[in-house]
Amino acid sequence: MKIAWKEMKKSKAKFLILGSIIFLVSFLTFIISGLANGLSQDNAALIKDLPAGQFYLDEDANQTYNLSKIDEDVQKKTLADNPDATAFSIQMGFVNDAEDKQHSVAFVTSTDSDLFQNVREGEIILDRTLEDEGIKVGDVLTNNQFSGEFVVKGFVDQQKYSHAPVAFIQMKNYQEIYRVMEMQAIFIPGKDAPTISGVESFSNKEFLNAIPSYSAEQMSLNMIVWFLVIISGMLFAIFFYMMNVQKIGLYGILKAIGMKTLSLFRMIWYQMIVITVVALALSIALSQGFSIVAPEGMPFHLTLDTVFMLSGVFLVVGFIGATISGFQIKKIEPLQAIQQGEM
Amino acid sequence: MSAFTIDEVKKTFTNGEIEEEILKGVNLTLKEGEITALVGPSGSGKSTILTIAAGLQSASGGEIIFEGKDMTKMSQEEIRHIRATDFGFVFQSSHLVPFLTVEEQLQLMLDVSETKTSKKEQSKAIEEILKLVDMEHRKDAYPSSLSGGERQRVAIARAIIHRPKILFADEPTASLDTKRSKDVMELLQELTRTLHLTTLMVTHDEEMLPYADRIITMRDGYIVE
C-alpha cells in the first residue's frame, strides 16, 4: 500500500479537501447526536436510568402514559405477587420558593422502592439543576394545591422528565395535590414479564415512546444524524468517483503492466481508511472538547459508546462509497488508457 | 530459437452494422535476442497486432503461442499474470506514475511482478538497471522534473527490471527529438542483446530501422514483406 500512501503524500491538497469534508460532516453528526442524546436525557432520564424491566399501564389508556390509572386492586395484587415491583406516578407541576419564585418540576411519587427516592410526608428531594437555581437543603417550598409545605432534604443528579427537573414527594402529598388515589404505572424490574389482567405491558423502549413528545423529538434528531451519515457515504462515493475519473489513465497503465484489479481497490480502501480515521479522530477530540465547553443548560450528552458506534458506521459507509466508486476501475481497458497519452 | 508465434491472427471491429477487418490473418515469429520492427502506413494494423500480442486486447481469430501455450484461450487472470511477469511495455508516452520517484517506479514493477521479494534483492536490481539506463543520478527525481528522453529511459528501465522475456515497444521514440530517439534505440538494442530479450517494436520513423534486426512491413491488415 506504499503506492496509496505515496499518492496521498504527493497530492496533499486533494486529500486534505476530502478529509476536511469528512471531518466537518462527522463533527456535525457527533454534535447533533450529542444534542439528541442530551435532549433524550433531558426528556426522560428518570425512565432511561431505570434497569431493564416491564412497565404496565391501564389497558384503557390508549398506550398513553398521561391517561393511565392503575386500578387499586390490581396494584395491590401485583405488588404482593412481585416484591420488586413498584407503582409510580409522574405529573408536571411547580413549586414556589421562599421568595415566591415559581420553579417548574415533574412531581414523582412511588410505593416503597430502591428505584425511586423514598421521602417522608412534607419532604422533597429535587434534581440538582434546582440547586443551580438557588434552592438549598432545608429550604421550604410550597405548592398552591398542597395545604402543607415541603422541606428540601437533598438533591439527586440527572433526574429529569419532560425537560423539567424531577421532584420526589411522598405519595399522600402527591394524592392531595392531584386529587387522585390511583398510581399511573407499575414497573417490575427483570426479564420476566408476568401477564397481569387489566393492564398492558411495555418494554423500557416502548414505554419511552408512550411519553408524549419523546418519540417525535428523538425521531427528528435521529433522522438528521442518519441523513448526515448517508450524505457522508455519498460524499465518499462522489469524491472517489471524481478522483478515479482523473486517474483512469494511471489505472489503465497499472493494469497494463499487470497490477491486479484487487490491488487497485486496496489502494482506494487504504486511502479511504486513512482519511476517515484521521477525520474521525479529529472529530471525536473536538466533540469531546465541545461537551466540556458547551454552554451551561445546553442539553448535550455524547457518550464514547455513541461516538464509537457512529465512527464504525462512518467507516462502513465510507468503505461502501469508495467501493461503489471503484467499480469503474473494473471496466477500465488498459489499451484505452495507453492511447490517451501522458498521465 | 522461436519465443513467440503469431499465427493467422485476425481482428474485426464492429461499428453499428458495419464490420471492419483490421487484421486479415497475420503470421509472425519473434526470435530471442532480436528487435523486430513493424512498419507500415497509418491504419495498416501494426499497433493492433502489437497490442493483441501483448494481451492488451483480444483477437477475433487465430493463435498466439507463447511458451507453447495459446494465449487466445487463456483467462484474463492468466493473461494479466503473463503481462506482469513475462512481458515488458514501452509506450509512445512514458506513462510513468506521476507521484512516484524513479526508484519507486521500478520498485512498483518489482512488486507487481512479484519477482524480487526481499528488500535487498529489490535494491540490487534497481541499482543495476539504473546503471544500465544511465539514470542512477536521478533515482530520487519525480517524472515532472525529468526531460522527455530521461522519462523514456526510466520507462525502459521499468519495462525490463523484472527480466521479461518479451518487450513490446509501441512508437518508443515518437515523442523524442532525433538525438534522444537514437539514444533510446541504442539502449533498446543493447538491452535486447545483453538481456536476451525478444523485442517487438512498432515505428513509423525510418531513421530507427537500422537498429532493428528484422523489419516487417504491414499494409491493409496483412504482412506484405
TrEMBL record, chain A:
GO cellular component, one term: plasma membrane
Listed InterPro entries: ABC-4/HrtB_transporter, ABC3_permease_C
Ranges of residues in domain ABC3 transporter permease C-terminal: 223-334
Pfam families linked: FtsX
Localization (cell): Cell membrane
Parts of the chain that traverse the membrane: 223-243, 264-286, 306-327
The UniProt record lists the keyword Transport: yes
Membrane topology: Multi-pass membrane protein
Key word Cell membrane present: yes
Keywords: Cell membrane, Membrane, Transmembrane, Transmembrane helix, Transport
Chief location: membrane
Subunit structure: The complex is composed of two ATP-binding proteins (HrtA), two transmembrane proteins (HrtB) and a solute-binding protein.
Assigned protein family: Belongs to the ABC-4 integral membrane protein family. HrtB subfamily.
Function in brief: Part of the ABC transporter complex hrt involved in hemin import. Responsible for the translocation of the substrate across the membrane.
Protein name as it appears in the record: Putative hemin transport system permease protein HrtB
High-level lineage: Bacteria, Bacillati, Bacillota, Bacilli, Bacillales
UniProtKB/TrEMBL annotation, chain B:
Compartment annotation: Cell membrane
GO cellular component term, pick one: membrane protein complex
Primary subcellular site in the record, as a coarse category: membrane
Domain ABC transporter, residue spans: 4-225
GO molecular function, one term: ATP binding
Membrane topology per record: Peripheral membrane protein
Keyword Transmembrane in record: no
Pfam families per the UniProt record, alphabetical: ABC_tran
Keyword Cell membrane part of the UniProt annotation: yes
Superkingdom of the organism of origin: Bacteria
SMART domains: AAA
UniProt keyword list: ATP-binding, Cell membrane, Hydrolase, Lipoprotein, Membrane, Nucleotide-binding, Transport
Functional note: Part of the ABC transporter complex hrt involved in hemin import. Responsible for energy coupling to the transport system.
Assembly mode: The complex is composed of two ATP-binding proteins (HrtA), two transmembrane proteins (HrtB) and a solute-binding protein.
Protein family per UniProt: Belongs to the ABC transporter superfamily. HrtA family.
Protein name: Putative hemin import ATP-binding protein HrtA
Organism: Sporosarcina newyorkensis 2681
